[in-house]
Amino acid sequence: MVEEALHNGRRLPALSAPRFVGRDGELDTLGAAFGGAPAVVLIEGEAGIGKTRLLREFLASEAQRGRHALVGACLDLRVPYTLGAVVDAVREGSDDIARLKLSGLAGALRPLFPEWADTLPAAPEPLEDATAARHRLFRAFVEVLDRLDVAILALEDVHWADEATLEFLLFLVSRRPQPVGVVLTYRRDEVPSSSLLLRLSSRLSPDSRVVRLTPRPLDAEETASFVSSMLADGHVSTEFADFVHARTEGVPLAVEESVRLMHDRADLIHRDGGWARRRLDRIEVPPTIRDAMLERVQRLGPDTRTVLYATAVLSSPADPATLLAVTGLPEERFAAQSVEALGSGLLREGRSGQWSFRHPLARYAVYDAIPAGDRRALHLRAGRALERWPVPPVAQLARHFRLAGEVEAACRYTEEAADLSTQSGDVATSALLIHSLVATVALPAEVLVRLVTKIQFQALSGSDPYSAVVEALRSALGEQVLTPVAQASVRFQIGRVLMGAGEIEAGRDEILTAIPHLPPGSAELARGRILLALPLGNARPVAEHLRWLEQAPPLAGSMASLDRLHLAADRAFALLTLGEEAGWAAAREIPDDVVDPRAASIVTVAHSNVGEEATRWGRYAEARARLAKAQALAERHQLLHYLDSIASSRAHLDWFTGAWSGLAEQTARLIDDYGGVRLKDRCEAALVAGLLQAATGDRAAAGERLRFAGRDDQQRIEATAALAQLCLDDGDIEEAVRLTDQLAEVAVGGGLWSRAVEFAPVRTAALVAAGRFGPASDVVNALQGALGDRDAPAPQASLVLCRAILAEADGRPAEAGALFRRAAAAWEALPRPYDALLARERSARCLVAAGRQEEGLSVLSEVARALSELGARNDAARIGRSLAGRGRNVLAAPRGRGRPGYGNELSPRELEVARLLVEGMTNRQIADALTVSAQTIASQVKSAMRKLDVSSRTALAVRVVESGLVSDLDQRPLNDE
Hints:
This protein is mainly alpha-helical. It is built from 44 helices and 10 strands. The strands form 3 sheets. It has a 5-stranded parallel sheet, with helices on both faces. Strand 4, helix 5 (163-173) and strand 5 form a beta-alpha-beta unit. It is globular.
């Protein structure tokens, strides 16, 4: 065997950039996509898979055809800067803005392009509405694209895009016709589930189309060709190619970096006419790209590493002058070492002369390798360098000074950047900026309190944005010398944040300690008392909570308008939670929309909270309307992190109202998102999932979901009631009593009737099953005394159900049956079909007990079929077994008053309803025509939709016409009630 290596006279060739390999199909697809009308191409894939290379090769071919493209990249910044990728793309593609002869609309671009101040039109009049201002800015960008004759706008790494950039993309692709083709690259696993990026394909204009590309890893043969191209097209042994492919899994970046490392180590040898690896038992290709990067960096000189460190610290592409300032090197040494830094293969120089890392993963590796002291010094020099820019980038300055430990400058720039973000409607970025500072820098107590007050926690991603803030506040309290008022202010913030995190009792204790020392008439004092008024945590009488609410000072005119709005919304929520009908009048004062993004956040939460309480009261139309308002506000003002909370509340409402189609999937999405969905919202989704599983599927899994749901204070009572009901169903009366003992005082004894709707019937049933009739009567009497004659349909129906349970246990089947029928009617009116059917079941059993067996069994058959149609398979099966024991078939046509079962076929009445629906009639009109209630028609429409597996009235009409069940009459438009 003949071996050739460097020390045997065979020099390793200089490494070349790898050839473009294995992407012919993707290139053809891209070319076809832009052969006609504008398209939207989404290129998704993991880091290093070759998305950027594919894009650049395609754009190079487009340039040869005379098609102009702009390219921008979204940067991996903790706090992205607004429209950064679009701004960079336009700046790169515009060398003479004056020749474009832009209209006055382009004056809106001045804040983003200060270097064009001499050529852009005058700035337009400011708009109070942030949404309108952003829309004007987007139209200005479209005009620039048009004047530049741009055919394709390409943005890379859109998973890091700020909300404004994603909004602009939505704006761009929804225009008729779409003005330019769009190519986006991103990593799918780093796109949040709430990202606007996922809505792009649904917003395309009719003349556009979407093309999705997912570059695959290279196979072994392609890997060999890829490696060969780096080694002067020398032959690569099959063994070596297979080795590299196996260790890198064919990811192009990993292949390239591994070969570069082996080359630097002189671990490549030329053997038998081809390249191979030296010493099979020793050489090891790095298992991660990070290891490869760090190995290469360590082989460079100290000054060259400093250049790389400075580039990594700056994060975004930087010009040599800025890099020089950040390195702190003398100019001549920087000039000498910058050549080596560029030649290392880690950096690249863009068309505008700016330097950046070729791959984000390389920048991560280098940044993490910087010694802590050096990193702080680099960030400090970066901050001072950027301060000298004509228009200092305040968000970047906030980051650099924060990481440098410069408290005063970090606070100043953070607040400035946060205020700018809020003014532009980007509440999420504002919250992230402040949270990052508070969580990482020790701040003076006064500054800390001011900043924490500004954080909109709901806008922050992640399941726990609270702990770091509480830790910072506790540190200030323990380590700084504070006046009693300052201590109280810090304690109030600790309590407020803890309560928001679900640590209710700990939060209450902090607020109780703070209250005596807070300034009279202050917003803090008012809010502290309102928070204490909320009936959360351990049991306290409602009267005690109401006293706190009464002690809250009136909303003084001297208070800031946002404070007044916040306090008014909190007061309405507290009143409704405490069961006070005055809360509805207070809730009506909450505005439907506001201009200020900070106010929009408050109002969105307010409508969502009122929606939750409306659900507890049984005012389901009000609940659905409030949640719809909250969702519309969240979407309009880009408060996207509120959507999960709204979704969990809507899922809860859908459970009650019998809208179970797709509910399991909706709740699973919320439950399984550990990193992005709040614990409170995951718990509410788990509650709904557990209730659904108890009725439709796996009861053991239901128990697990319900126990998880009980971790949240607001779901604890209902989750406990559901667990106790499972115990009763299994005959474990002792455990059912034990579970409900724990919360009886909270849910019933203290007069908190709004939390007793699901709890009181289960508690009553457990007690009578245990033979404890006196305590069971006490539960009913306590609920009746607390509830009175309030207009609260759900609690009133629950009260009737409790009375029915007592009457049945007392051996009065006729009276109990009548009460169960009243409860069923009350539930149905809400509507709450599942509870209505369970009450009807119990009324039927009372009929059997009273000797009216035939009538009772007929009703049971009807209930079983209805439960089956609803999806409550467990309950339907239970009744079916009971009927089978009496010789009855639940699917057989019952005698007398019973109705025949039609399985998955529409009944004659459902067909009649469908025929009238096709005619374009509303539920009310159909009800009038058939002389029944609108609610009955709504139930029959839902039943028909379930049987035909459709999700809307329109789809139902289409399906029955296509199936020939009814004729297509005159195809009048449908009222989608």
